[in-house]
Design a protein that fits this description.
single chain, about 180 residues, mainly alpha, 2 domains, two-stranded antiparallel sheet, about 5% strand
C-alpha cells in the first residue's frame, strides 16, 4: 500500500516546502524578531575567533562538567552570566541551496513517516480520519522538536512557539494532501 501513497508523500512535502518559503519570504514580521544583534558584535566575533573554535560546532557558555558545577568559581560564572548556547557554522556565506535541499529532504521524511503511520488505515477510509491521523503525525514531526530546543538548548520560548505554529500549518497541509489523495476502496 505504501506505493499507493507516493503521490501524497511527494506532494505534501512539496506543499510544505513552498508554504515554508512563503512564510519566511512574505511574513518577515513573523520570524525576523527572533534573531537579535549584539551591540558589540565585532568584539564578540573577535573573541570567538581568538578562542579558536572547531567549526561547525555547538558550545555551552560557560562550559563545565557536572563535577565542576559544584565549585564556587563555576557557581560565580553562572551567577554573573551570560549563560547560553552558541552554534557556529563554517566561515563564509550560508549555502542556501544545501539548506533548502536538506529542508526538502526533511519534509519528505516527515511525509514518509506519516504514510507509514497511515498504513493502518485501509483504502477507502473516511477522509476526515485520514486527515486527523496524518496531520497529528505531521505535527509531531514538524513542531515537537521545538519543545526540546526550548528545554535543553535555551531557545527562546516565544520563538519556539512561533515554530510550533508553523508546524501546525505544515501538519494541516500534510493532512489535507493525504486526505485529498487517499486511495479509494
Amino acid at each position: 500500500m505504501l506505493t499507493a501513497l507516493w503521490l501524497p508523500i511527494l506532494l505534501s512535502a512539496a506543499f510544505v516546502f513552498f508554504a515554508s518559503a512563503l512564510v519566511n519570504m512574505l511574513l518577515k514580521f513573523w520570524h525576523a524578531p527572533d534573531y537579535r544583534r549584539f551591540s558589540n558584535e565585532d568584539e564578540i566575533r573577535t573573541a570567538i575567533r581568538n578562542g579558536n573554535p572547531a567549526m561547525p560546532g555547538q558550545y555551552a557558555l560557560p562550559w563545565c562538567t557536572p563535577e565542576a558545577m559544584k565549585e564556587p568559581a563555576m557557581q560565580e560564572k553562572l551567577t554573573q552570566g551570560p549563560v547560553g548556547m552558541v552554534y557556529l557554522r563554517r566561515p563564509g556565506a550560508m549555502n542556501m541551496g544545501m539548506s533548502l535541499f536538506q529542508w526538502f529532504l526533511f519534509c519528505l521524511l516527515v511525509s514518509l513517516f506519516c504514510a507509514f503511520i497511515a498504513l493502518v488505515l485501509p483504502a477507502g477510509t473516511d477522509r476526515h480520519l485520514v486527515f486527523h491521523t496524518v496531520a497529528l503525525a505531521a505535527l509531531m514531526g514538524y513542531a515537537f522538536g521545538c519543545f526540546t530546543d526550548g528545554i535543553w538548548r535555551v531557545f527562546p520560548w516565544k520563538a519556539a512557539f512561533k515554530y510550533v505554529v508553523d508546524g501546525f500549518v505544515y501538519a494541516i497541509i500534510t493532512g489535507l494532501t493525504f486526505a485529498w489523495l487517499w486511495p479509494a476502496a
